[in-house]
Design brief:
- It comes from Granulicella rosea.
- It is built from twelve helices and nine strands.
- It has an eight-stranded mixed beta barrel with strand order 1-2-4-5-6-7-8-9, surrounded by four helices.
- A hairpin with a 3-residue loop joins strand 2 and strand 3.
- Helix content is 48%, strand content 19%.
- The chain is of the alpha/beta class.
- Bound molecules: ligand C2E and calcium ion (3 copies).
- Ligand C2E binds next to strand 2, helix 2, helix 3 and strand 6.
């Protein structure tokens, strides 16, 4: 047709054509996924580097699509962001994580923190604070057991609005963590303006901190900076005992990664958490 014009030629390039088709398929499948109950959460343990004890988990979303199979978040979160679907998918993830971990706390009679990833679009919804409040109320999860993970990117733009959002969430008693720290923009003044509770060192630094002097230097600097501001540090993607040893020497507070556990099903988490409770 006339409207498509010249640019539509690109559609018929074999490689790109497949990509566009896949994206359309993904998008339409994603639109019905919530209604059809195709999402679930897995939970990756976080441990204290001081005591080795399980202290909390990060909730990570999975999509079991009848048409596409198991889809990892890296493959659908960007599309969900683009289409705005992330707002309802993210709300589902937050409410489900609160419900499941509140129940687990009751069953095991122990405390367990849960961290939930939030997208910028979700955070900028008008009723964002009310939504968190109602997720806490309806689940019965204590506010101080919930942590929300935000990316640096969000804090860089709209910093006035971000400041307000963060303060309102913290006023509820919920903790705020900065995800993938060190990978964003170099202007870090925001960490003095927002009273962040935790920094998560990106796994790209953690995975190289043993062999690469520069990564070790960045890791060392992030931990020192955070601690001087009384912010706790979580190292992500810890895979080897050597990495854990370096991080412990640097007084990093918490660690998360395949060395301790892969992301677990709720039942897998229940088994692990009840084992560590008995000890
Ligand atoms: P992230 O928040 O940085 O999550 C950490 C990712 O690293 C997870 O991948 C996790 O499975 C993986 N990982 C954990 N330990 C190790 C390790 O030792 N080695 C390696 N190589 N990888 C490790 P996953 O589950 O595929 O999640 C990818 C990203 O998707 C997350 O990155 C997060 O940005 C996003 N995401 C996941 N769930 C949600 C959600 O509910 N909402 C939103 N908005 N984003 C989500
Ligand atoms: Ca995260
Ligand atoms: Ca991360
Ligand atoms: Ca990441």
């Amino acid at each position: 047709s006339k409207a498509l014009g010249r640019n539509s030629l690109a559609v018929f390039t074999p490689g790109l054509g497949r990509e566009l088709m896949d994206k359309l398929k993904l998008e339409s499948a994603l639109r019905t996924a919530l209604d059809r109950d195709e999402f679930y959460l897995v939970y990756q343990p976080q441990v204290s580097l001081k005591t080795g004890q399980l202290t909390g988990v990060e909730a990570l979303i999975r999509w079991k699509s009848p048409a596409l199979g198991l889809v990892m978040p890296g493959d659908f979160i960007p599309v969900a962001e683009e289409t705005g679907l992330i707002v309802s998918i993210g709300e589902w993830a937050l409410r489900t994580a609160c419900d499941q971990i509140a129940q687990l706390q009751l069953d095991l009679r122990r405390r367990l923190n849960v961290a939930v990833n939030l997208s910028p679009r979700q955070v900028h919804q008008k009723d964002f604070q009310t939504m968190i409040e109602s997720a806490l109320l309806e689940s019965g999860l204590p506010a101080n057991s919930l942590e929300v993970e935000l990316t640096e990117h969000l804090l860089m733009r709209d910093s006035e609005e971000s400041l307000e959002i963060i303060e309102r969430v913290q006023a509820l008693g919920v903790k705020v963590a900065i995800d993938d720290f060190g990978t964003g923009f170099s202007n870090m003044s925001y960490i003095t303006r927002f009273r962040i509770d935790r920094l998560k060192i990106d796994q790209s630094f953690v995975s190289r901190c043993v062999d690469d002097q520069n990564s070790l230097a960045v890791t060392t600097a992030i931990i020192a900076l955070a601690h001087s501001l009384r912010i706790d540090v979580v190292a992500e993607g810890v895979e080897t005992p050597a990495q854990a040893a370096v991080l412990r020497d640097l007084r990093c507070d918490f660690a998360q990664g395949y060395l301790y556990a892969r992301p677990l099903s709720l039942e897998g988490l229940r088994a692990m958490a009840s084992e560590t409770t008995k000890q």
